[in-house]
Amino acid sequence: MRVSYEWLKSMVDLPQDPQDLVREFVRTGTEVESVERVGAEITGVVTSQVLEKVPHPNSDHMYVCKMDVGSHNVDEDGNPVPLQVVCGAQNFEQGDKTVTALVGATLPGGVKIKKGKLRGIESLGMNCSSRELGLDDDHSGIMILPKDAPVGVDFLEWRGLTDTVIDCEITPNRPDCLSMLGMATEVSAMLDEDVHAELPSIAEESADAGRTADLVDVTIDDPSLCPRYTARVVRNVKIGPSPEWLARRVMAAGSRPINNVVDVTNYVMYLTGQPLHAFDLGKLSERDGKRHIVVRAAREGESIVTLDGQERDLTPDMAVITDDGRTPVALAGVMGGQNSEIDEGTVDVLLESASFEKGHISRTSRNLDLMSEASIRYERQVDTARCADVSNIAAALFEACCGAQVCEGMVDEYPVPALPATIKLRPDRVRALCGAPIQTSFMAQRLRRLGCQVSEGEGEHDPMTVVAPTNRHDLTREIDLVEEVLRLWGEGDVEPTLPAARNHAGGLSVEQRRTRKICATLRSAGLSETSTYNFADPRDLERLGMPERGKGIPVKILHPLVADQGEMRRDMIPGLLRSVAYNKDHGVQNVHLYELGRVFFGHEGKSQPDEPTYVAGVMSGRWADDAWNKKYANLDFYDAKGVVETLLEALRITKVRFRVADPDEYPWLQPGRAAEVLAQGELLGWVGNIHPRALGNFGIDDPVVAFELSEAPLLRLAQDELPYQEVPTLPGVKIDLALVVDESMSYEQVSQRIRSAGGKLLASVELFDVYRDEKRVGAGKKSMAFSLEYRAADHTLSSEEVERAHNKLVTKVIKSTGGEVRG
């Protein structure tokens, strides 16, 4: 809802600064989307007068003019002098008053006026048309101002175009605020000010024009579609431009002025919130001396060409206004038809002011993809009780702005009268629910400001009876009034208090604490949290090279917003790779991201998919850009593995090991640079380099290392505490062991066999060298050197004990690995 500050100020006293009103809107629950100053893009434009008009010596259609712009052009002594302007318009004469943009002025669209020469003659400004000023589409010539217009004053201020427009976001439950009167009422309650709106009234209902009831009758087939329909006739309408004040207010509300008839209906809608429609009475068929309006449901196969020139097929759940029950002439509450529109030949007008059932209007607008200012208000429900009053306001404006004669009376079909809600309000209940010392007098006063009729009790604690206004359909219960009182009193002024409770301990659950620790650990490791779309491209897994086994069946989206988001994601890595590609394309070379989120696995015969949670990360580039005193290496597999190890250590998960990933099982990872992550014999996930083929499918040229772990086993295996182990006080014995094994043997396999063979005395195993040489070690062989430490918990080991344990270990390891001890 665009709220004109100047228009609103004419109905209720406002603060001098519009920002003060904006703060009050926000305080009381009305969001403000923007605040704009009308005409802010126009500067340096003044009223002027043509003092001299001489034909251009080098042109057959331009003139050299001397323009009086007052003190905006002066000589060396500071005295006003005429301004020379070359003008090509043909519609002005010497002595006319017009509008001139000075050198340095700005016009709509970013146009800036500069000093220049036209056909060799210097021009120091520009005489403007109304289209060049953004006022309308007329560019037939420059603007000609009234003879009494002042000269040399700011055009915007003189024309009253220095308004401020506040664009408010109105929630669906507040259709009363989709009007200037409704906003004035709201501001009245916010600021505790009186509303002093002066509404136009009909000067005279003309007997010569006839009685509306003799010219029109109305039939409502189904009151559930149309609770009320009023019709008025105004005759001898003179179509033409709207008065300046009317056009200005229609523009401030967001519409383009068209002609006085259309502008009146738009103005009254913006003023009252009640949409109107004007039919050309002469285009409706006549029977028995009358036009017959029938409101009914559309019939199968019917169609209508609406005012936007589109032919629209109708269905039986749509309401239509018809000419004598036969031809649809309007889509009820949405848009009129071309076959009855107002045009330059219109003489007599049938004015509709009606109420339609909001559900039907909403479905019609949605099904036809046709939204209008009228449908927006009807689908939120208009004030049925005020249809006749609004019709009278519009008729008065037709009389004043269109020179029309208003026929006597109106036709008012009102089969379902709107009854206001009567509500009992207990002041003590208000104070108890709000937790604030709100005075009973404040409640009564502010509710009256909102249009309620309030009957107070005798004392501060006595209940009051409140009759809600018919335009507040959201006020039906006591709690609705409590909410109104509280928001006007100020939720921010309520003193915070702890709720009364016994034996309730707040805090995070174990799973929540562990989930937060996962995120905190990854952030501390240098990764930034991100959130990618849950929607995915159906080809994501194929692009990645990830098989579908174990991923369930895709969960399809019935009406995807875009083609490449047609199903719910089954893996998180594609989304993260897109984030890497986006960052790389925008110049960010070092990318370290992680995400904790759900994936979706559908199953045949099940109505709901599985939604397991995973934590995944991607890393590319380096940890940081090089500095003068430090160089950083490119991130590789071991950096990602280190992040995973840091995470598992923070969660205190024990018995962690990494197993070489089978390339056939992990085709999206580079062979030899990928590993499965296990803990206590359970598979947690994987870590490795993304295959270059997969990176190319996502538009990435640089290497990327990634990991993906299932959250469920992480939370289940995590521990808050570890068993205490005393610091060793007895010395250990270190012995180096070099084993020659087949190239296919991995570190994980060899170290596991060493630990298994070492028994209780083996305290630690550490690989410190890998050596390959065909002559000294053998083809297809490698030497792996380990540092072994032996220690007993209860005594100092003797050399015999160590030798015996070590020999036993060597024998078992040689046998299990097929290797030999390197001499």
UniProtKB/TrEMBL annotation:
Its cofactor is Mg(2+). GO terms for cellular component: phenylalanine-tRNA ligase complex. Binds 2 magnesium ions per tetramer. Pfam families: B3_4, B5, FDX-ACB, tRNA_bind, tRNA_synthFbeta. Keywords: Aminoacyl-tRNA synthetase, ATP-binding, Cytoplasm, Ligase, Magnesium, Metal-binding, Nucleotide-binding, Protein biosynthesis, RNA-binding, tRNA-binding. Its EC number is 6.1.1.20. PROSITE patterns: B5, FDX_ACB, TRBD. One of its GO terms (molecular function) is magnesium ion binding. It comes from the Bacteria. It is found in: Cytoplasm. Mg(2+) binds at D474, D480, E483, E484. SMART domains: B3_4, B5, FDX-ACB. Residues 728-822 form the FDX-ACB domain. It is an enzyme of class 6 (ligase). Residues 418-496 form the B5 domain. It catalyses: tRNA(Phe) + L-phenylalanine + ATP = L-phenylalanyl-tRNA(Phe) + AMP + diphosphate + H(+). GO terms for biological process: phenylalanyl-tRNA aminoacylation. Residues 39-156 form the TRNA-binding domain. Belongs to the phenylalanyl-tRNA synthetase beta subunit family. Type 1 subfamily. Tetramer of two alpha and two beta subunits. This is Phenylalanine--tRNA ligase beta subunit. It comes from Olsenella porci. The lineage of its organism: Bacteria, Bacillati, Actinomycetota, Coriobacteriia, Coriobacteriales.
